[in-house]
Amino acid sequence: MNEITGPQNAPPLSGAWPAQLPGPGTPHSLTRPVRYLRYRAFYNGEQWEDAPAPGERRITFNYARVFCNKAASYLLGRAPGYDVAVVPDPAANAEPPAAAAAPAVEAFLAQVAAFNALAAADLDTAISAATLGDGAWTVRWDAAAGLPRVTGVDPSGLDARWRADDLRTLLWLRQSYWLMPAEMTAAQQAALDQPQADPYAPLRAEEEWTPTAWRLRVGDRQIDGGPNVYGVIPYVLFPNLRVPGEFWGESDLADLLGLQRELNSRFSLFSRILEVAGNPVAVVSGVEPGATESLRLGPNQLWTLPEGARAEVLQLLQAGGAAAHFKYIEAVYRAMHDVSEMPRTSFGDSAGHGTTGRSGVALQIELQPLLHKLARKRAILSGALERRAQLILAVARVHGVALPPVRITVQWPPVLPQDRTELVAQEVSLVQAGIHPPTAAMAALGDPDPAAQWPTVIAQAAQAQAVGLR
Hints:
Layout: H1 27-30, H2 32-43, H3 63-76, E1 81-86, H4 101-116, H5 118-132, E2 134-142, E3 147-152, E4 158-163, E5 166-179, H6 186-190, E6 203-209, E7 213-218, E8 221-227, E9 235-239, H7 257-278, E10 282-285, E11 310-313, H8 321-340, H9 360-366, H10 368-398, E12 406-411, H11 420-432, H12 438-444, H13 450-466
Antiparallel strand pairs: 1-12, 2-3, 2-9, 4-5, 5-6, 6-7, 7-8, 10-11
Helix pairs in contact: 3-5, 7-8
């Protein structure tokens, strides 16, 4: 399988393609492209619904982008780990797997993660999913590196169908993208309608997959295809936040659009008021029209007015006008933090709490809305990361890498800073009291694989006792 299409040297497609695809889906699915366009533009700062009037000042405080980026940083600021357990095959009557089998799989996954720079790629995908509402990866074989290549996919180029009773199982997927002849194999170029003079001229391509077959089309011509040797569609799709009963998800921006526009409008209006207040407007009454043209505001300006005329400077911020504007802006701003479940504390704001530090429990209580939001996202993303890891292993096995069947569990790092001193003392007491086994204490202290480390701990403890150390 090459980077762009599917398995290499696959036999021709013969009757494996479905004659009719399932229906197009629900209204939520059908309006997905429109949502993507609106959310992507809003994230990029296009947040006003109409064109500005001549000379109108508009201020955009793009908290929408800040909220998406900040939530993704809390979610994947530290990459999660994998706990791998080898699953014996009872039907094969084979010997139990070697103790080194699980660490070997973990080492292979770590090698793939380093090759693909997955820590940065996953953070990008988390930001994109928070903005658009959906995220996707595809796993292909990189023949040059001899490793699976994991690529983030723009969900706006995807269409898919899934089992009605299992939203995680894909039945059909199509990805639309631009493809250059220089990226094609010689056989694929020969299958085009006509040779392309420019090897870098982009062509519109559609790649389609089912669990049994795949094909690549450019225009109306199928240029590649064959049986799906993986047995599963090599894509992982996941929602940012689950909409009940729907396959496609919802953006973090769904409930912020109106509040963000109102904040921009109020700030822009207040900015114009301050500008006028800094350059006062003079109101003159009792004079002929045109007689005020010589009157100028500024230092050392002396006005001469006819008898009975009256002049005064318009005060726009008198009688608490500024305070009323600030109070309303603060209410909108607070509502944005409430709706986004991102308290000011998550931005490092400790105003109103004095200079003394707060306990970890107090900080956790203040951040409860964010922690609940992350818990929902982690529940979805854990399944997606586990499916991706299994897909990485499946692609590697097809291309000759010997890997046993395994069960994979995602291990998430703690969101909040941990008080290591207190935590160590607590775990020591629990182990000495026989409440926690040592491996549970090691896991609580952040060890990614306590079971693998425990024999090393025992061996080193024996060596220490042999030389008279505790």
